[in-house]
Amino acid sequence: MKKLMQGFRIKSILLPSLSENYSSSPSKSLVSWIAVYSTVSQKKAIAPKPHAGNSILANYLIGSLKFSKDKAHSVSSKFSHCETLERPEQAVRFFRGLGFSDAHIRAIANSVPRLLFADTENTLKPKVEFFQELGLSGPLLGSFVSRTPCILYCSVERCLKPRINLIRNIFESDGRNRSIESVNDDLFKTITRCGRIVLARHTLESNIQYLKSCGVVGSQLSSLLFRLPRIFSLKHDKLEEIVSRALAMNFTMGSRMLVHAIHSLSCMSSDTFKVKYEIYKAFGFSKEEIDLMFRKSPYIFGLSVATLRRKLELLLNDLRLSRSVVVQFPGIMSLNFEERVVPRYKVLEILKLKGVLKKDPSLSRAMCLPESKFLETYVQPFKAEAEELLLAYNGQVLNT
């Protein structure tokens, strides 16, 4: 009560009394009181708060690991009880001894700061040794751990080994009869690309089983795991939604192209996909044609919006290809236009205008040939036109 009364007395000093001269000028006194109270409230609201945190730990993070002041105080505020730097110094020495850079250690401390206080012998060392046995060491191990530092809190026996063995089994049983070294190399690259795949055992297992039920098995499953491991860490309903979108475009369960559709669709949001779909429609393609192109070449939707527009503009308006040609050979959208499509198309047009071809060449075949084979087939046999063809192929025009 005494402290409460003191508080009232302090406020009475800071703020004018409402009763003071209220009878003589009530409205003036009230306005004055509100104005002063508002000013005091605003000053309290904008007054900078001092950094709350452990100054010993903050100074260590700034001096030893080159943390910014804000980051150091943010991390140290979680450990106000810390009275000694023994554990943090021990952890930092341990990581540096493994070949981790200060940038790696900063990322670890910033993401999972309690690792600075982990028991190096019983908590950190067993996990590090496990990954070293897989072939991860030095800066590569540092990069892996710094991206997924909470992996150092996983049990080796209950979590890491079962999940690693599950991934390894997919590579071993994909029917390609590879060596142990090749399998381990794929395993190594997979977990370094997406460390969190090791963290989600039940998600990993359920997604593997679901993809198998969709007909994605053997080498298709191992290729998808190797190329895009993050798919296997998606929430199960998200993966089902991606497959449903593919099926809506007339892919079928068990189709060898389904895995490519899943890969393509998983790399963009449904909104982005809709935007790209509308671009194809704006250039005159029907829904049936777009779906057919996607089934033939799912990665045509992997182009950026700007690149997609530019390529369609060039094909349909500049080169004057018909939409039916693009529908028949949608893979042309994935080729390098400047170095392959435009030069080769110009060569083919010259040959057709000269009438030296017995039949119209297959556009898809001409575009997919290696450069040496293309020149051997469409330039070298035509001696009279060779100079003009080579100039067109190199982006020049023959002066006549």
From TrEMBL:
Stretches of the chain forming a coiled coil according to its record: none
Q: Does the keyword Transcription apply?
A: yes
Q: Could you tell me the keywords of this UniProt record?
A: Transcription, Transcription regulation, Transcription termination, Transit peptide
Against SMART domains, the record matches this protein to: Mterf
Which GO terms of type biological process are on file? DNA-templated transcription termination
The organism's place on the tree of life at top rank = Eukaryota
Q: Which residues form the signal peptide?
A: none
* Family as reported in the entry's similarity comment: Belongs to the mTERF family.
Matching entries from PANTHER family are given as:
CGI-12 PROTEIN-RELATED, EMB|CAB62602.1
| Name by which UniProt lists this protein | Transcription termination factor MTERF15, mitochondrial-like
**What's the source species for this entry?**
Salvia divinorum (Maria pastora)
